[in-house]
Amino acid sequence: MTAVELAWYGVDLRSGGIVEDLPALTPSGALSRKLGDSTTVQASLYLPGAPAGWDEATTPGNSLLVAVDTATDTPVWAGALLTREGGGAQTVQLGAATLERYLDSRFPGTQTLFGADQAAVISALVTPALTNGPPIVIDAPSTGVTMDYLTQDGDDKSILSCLKEIMGLDAGPEWTIDVAWNATHSGFRFPLRVRPAIGTQVATPEGTFDFPGCVSSYTLTESYEDGKGATAVIARGEGEGSSRLTSSPHEATALITSGWPRWEYRFTPATGVTDPDQLEAHAAKTLALMARGAQVWSIEAVASRAPRLGRDWTLGDTVHLAIERSPRHPQGADTVARCWSWELDPGADRVRPILVEEN
Questions:
Q1: Which residues have CB under 8 Å from 59's CB, separation 6+?
Q2: Please, which domain of life does this record's source organism belong to (predicted)?
Q3: Coil vs helix vs strand at 141
Q4: From 156's CA, which of 7, 40, 101, 112 has a CA 20 to 30 Å away?
Q5: Which residues, in sequence order, are bridge partners of residue 318?
Q6: How many other CB atoms are found less than 10 A from the CB of residue 47?
Q7: How confident is the model at residue 320 (pLDDT cuts 50, 70, 90)?
Q8: What distance in Å separates the CA atoms of residue 349 and residue 341, rounded to the nearest whole number?
């Protein structure tokens, strides 16, 4: 059992090359990642212990922070520097966000794609960000599912908003931006992976989070609140009144027939969809996620005793949780669910996978 210790590097955002080691950097909270979205971290850099090039290595807008698990030599987190504050104190405060945030500051231009594979659509949307951007490497094999996608430069929709829109469609692909060593081990590259489902989904995942055992606490949250549970869904586009684009009603017919009540939910996708087929796809996926409500397992485990993040499991993987007995589950419970996000706090020796049971 090895404690999780992170080596921190200040990295050039354009090239991915290491500018300085930053052993005096300490995050003020847990690191985290989430499928298809950005996460942030705040950190402090103790200046008396910082290398001579710390200023260049932590320039907002031009630098990255990268954390590497020293026991496995696995990069686990990378974030673009967005803020830096310092003055009379011995420390400088830094704020960074994962590279999904960078895609919110780049725009795809006008794109007209008909009958293109989902992976090809995402690749086309991301490609403009490869010019004068970080060393993002698109890893997008064909998904086997085609779609139409149109966006106008005048819409001012960022690449991130387009990718979120596509991921929110029924049978929409998943995506994430990882971090990996480059070929010479002198810096990092950032694979943008596109798959029907990110990660490895197996019935018997590597390693087990057990309670009692490496798991110190867990919570199963079940919710049928507004926005989390519904058996009848309608998606609406922008506009008002009878001219407003509206999907057909999508109903959980089998559940309603078996005796479930009708719970209605109407929503407008955040990106303002104008394509009727995409609106139908948003409604279908939302119903699939909400029909039986949300079931989320929040696990807190001892990182040095738990399956190792980055080696045994990572974002999108199925994760095994075995509960021998607890007040909530007196007869025990055994579940395999997907990791949709995680938090890692090396200083507290804690790792927190968030597992979602998919209906």
A1: 81, 84
A2: Bacteria
A3: coil
A4: 40
A5: 338
A6: 14
A7: very high
A8: 18
At 48-101, the pLDDT tens digits run: 989 999 999 999 999 999 999 999 999 999 999 999 999 999 999 999 999 999
Rounded Cα distance between 214 and 318, Å, is: 18
Rounded CA separation 311/222 (Å): 30
User: Would you say the pTM of this structure is higher than 0.85?
Assistant: yes
- Residue 270 is predicted with a pLDDT of 65
Residue 55's contacts (CB-CB under 8 Å, 6 or more residues apart) are none
Note the pLDDT tens digit of each residue in 127-152. Answer: 999 999 999 999 999 999 999 999 99
Q: Does position 275 have pLDDT exceeding 80, yes or no?
A: no
Q: Which of 100, 105, 167, 160 is nearest to 136 (CA)?
A: 100
Asked if 173 and 122 count as a contact pair (C-beta separation under 8 A), the reply is yes
Give 154: exposed, middle or buried? Use CB within 10 Å, 0-12, 13-18, 19+. exposed
SS3 content of the chain, % helix, strand, coil (to 5): 15, 40, 40
Residue pair 315/37 in contact by the 8 Å Cβ criterion? no
- Name the helix (H) or strand (E) containing 175: strand 174-177
Token reading at 63: 């630098």
What CA–CA distance (Å, rounded) separates 169 from 342? 23
Query: For residue 328, which amino acid is it?
Result: R
Residue 199, SS3 per DSSP: coil
The CA distance from 23 to 69, in Å, is: 13
Beta bridge partners of 164: none
Largest interatomic CA distance in the chain = 69
